[in-house]
Amino acid sequence: MNSQVWWRDAAIYQVYPRSFRDSNGDGEGDLQGVIEGLPYLADLGVDAIWLSPFYKSPNKDGGYDVSDPRDVDPRFGTLDDAAELIGAAHSRGLKLIVDIVPNHFSSEHEWFKEAIGSPRGSAARSRFHFYDGRGENGELPPNNWISVFRGPAWTRTPDGQWYLHLFDSSQPDLNWKNPDVSADFEKTLRFWLDLGVDGFRIDVAHGGAKDNILIDHPNPERLIDALRLDFLDISETERAGLLADVPFFDREGVHEIYRKWRAVLDEYSGDRMTVAEAFVYPSSRAARYVRPGELNQVFNFNFMMLGWDAAAMRASIEKTLAELIDVQAPATWVLNNHDTPRVVTRIGGARKARALAMLTHSLPGGIYIYQGEELGLPSVDLPDEARQDPAFIRSGGSDKGRDECRVPIPWIASEPNYGYGTGNPWLPQPDTWAQFAMDVEAQDPTSSLTLYKESLKLRHTHPALGGEGVLTWIDAPHGVMHFTREPGLEVVVNTLDTDVSMEVKGKSFLLQSASGSLLQDGVLTISANTTIWLQR
Ligand code: NOJ
After folding, report:
1. Which residue out of 167, 206, 388 has the highest number of ligand 1 atoms within 8 Å of its CB and is therefore the one to mutate?
2. 341 alpha carbon to ligand 1 midpoint, in Å?
3. Is 28 among the catalytic positions?
4. Range of 432's domain?
């Protein structure tokens, strides 16, 4: 790391706690499991952990349906466990950031229960979006919006009104025009900051503010396709067109919320940070979330959705860096998360995924690693009976949902459930996963885990890596990316299925994503689908 401020070029590891490590044998991961995993994470060489939700929740959407944002769900442990985890992470030199979910609460939150029990037009209802329906007797929803998990974005209440939920019907959207909402979220921010967290990942950061709530959308079904991070069967042009002006996302009002949040975080010492999940188009709009006085980082989803294509990746890297320089924010590089196909599956195999990881690890800014990515885990083709994602349920199975990337990760090959825990894992693990277990990969110098450890170590020790320094492109053959990071590092990425030879005088190998390349008499023959770091 070369930045003065830790998060600007940190390697942040996403723990999806339900699938990380189960300490009490109930088949679901928990906070004590995360504590048990800290030595592994410290040894891996990451700088921080982003911990996905562990708050009180009926768990209809993997904990992103929060019924009490200032308490821990018993499935994960207790508030004492959370405090212990924060302390234990810090004592190993790891920062810890947690999720905050401002777009919606769970329908089990006391506010929503109160709202359902209160009359139309009441103060309790005005914390959410309750409207009368259309049609003669209000029997039709107030508009034609579709939930991100499919099906209508409105559900009717027993007294005939409808409430808005852009996600599951158990996730009513909050009305940010109501001051109770901002006051409550400020309380939540302070609650976790006081407990010692180093920052927040903001869920659906482009939600919150909503305009024109009663207006229909011309193409709601296709809009939802375009909004899904795991829906790749859409052209970039169509996606950009559909997402250019979404009535319920990326409205001007969200920025006011984040300026207030920034001021709260700045009251605390220790460079507390925020990272926005804001999937917005054109990508230049993402930079607006990280303007001075607002949030710190925004996930780079545009890069994440690209295929293994040198020209497209180069163009996206250039665009990202240029857009963020204007607002003085660092870039982030993300290859997958708990909502997307795993990178190995998305990009077409482990070899390409390793080369892609080494490319992103060499770029200026911060990186995010989703648990199991370092092991090279693929997505799992689960039987339908095992699937639990509301996207699968609400779509009647036509959308397979996101469980495929959430299968509990393998720790020790020879133990039951690969050492994840003694209970029956909440999603079945494939019987081929012993090869990916941490203990197996740790012994194998050619494993994905070994590669990640080496590259993360170099990010700490090599003066050209991390930081926000300049990246200078060098002309390269078709299908190859070639650039320098100063001082002394050159990066070559071959995205082709064939070897490529090129001149690179006076350099030696520093790290390679796969073996087989040759460097002789100033000529590099780089193997197919390989990234190489060269030292000058
Ligand atoms: C984004 C989260 O990453 C995802 O898992 C969740 O379903 C939605 N936001 C709704 O909170």
Report:
1. 167
2. 14
3. no
4. 6-104+179-458
